[in-house]
Amino acid sequence: MTVTSQPAALTSEDIDRLVAAFYARVRADEVLGPVFRRKIGRDGEVWRRHEAKIAGFWRNALGIQVGAYSGNPQMAHIGNPDVLPEHFAIWLGHFRATADAVLAPEQADAIHGMASRIGRGMRMGVESVRRPADAPPRLF
Predict the structure, then answer these.
(1) What is the pTM of this model?
(2) Residue 140 falls within a domain, yes or no?
(3) What is the per-residue pLDDT across 1-60, written as a single tens digit (0 to 9) for each?
């Protein structure tokens, strides 16, 4: 009889650790850092509230805590003219590297696919709204 182990489930604490480490990378990034500073500022308390909101998004998305997030992230990104479609590749690179650094390998693997789908959807939404009506879509 073969026994297979189930991947370790992500916990709320894992998500908090992931989000905090991710935003530390984002704040230090030469492209994304200024975009976030213009929107969120530099105040530590404002950042903590933002991180708590985004941790709620991930808890909700992963089914850890349904109802933990209220909002429309697509509209938040579309509504910020500083957010460009090409930023999402940078975002995803930081997210993947952070997940790999702070989570167990099977946990990181489990969240990579969802993060890729979310990033792709966000990029497509931002690109679509900002594209002139007669222009073809940009294929990244």
Answers:
(1) 0.85
(2) no
(3) 444 444 468 999 999 999 999 999 999 999 999 999 998 988 788 999 999 999 999 999
Q: Is residue 99 part of a domain?
A: yes
Written as six digits, the tokens of 59 are 């808890």
Assess if residue 7 is contained within a domain: no
What is the number of structural domains in the chain? 1
Residue 61: which of 126, 113, 124 has the closest Cα? 113
What residues make up the domain containing 90?
12-130
User: Is 135 part of any domain?
Assistant: no
C-alpha–C-alpha distance, residues 35 and 13, integer Å: 27
Instruction: Kindly report the three-state secondary structure assignment for every residue of the chain.
Output: CCCCCCCCCCCHHHHHHHHHHHHHHHHHCCCHHHHHHHHHCCCHHHHHHHHHHHHHHHHHHCCCCCCCCCCCHHHHHHCCCCCCCCHHHHHHHHHHHHHHHHCCHHHHHHHHHHHHHHHHHHHHHHHHHHCCCCCCCCCC
Q: Are the C-beta atoms of residues 108 and 100 closer than 8 Å to each other?
A: yes
- CATH number reported for the structural domain that contains residue 70 in this entry: 1.10.490.10
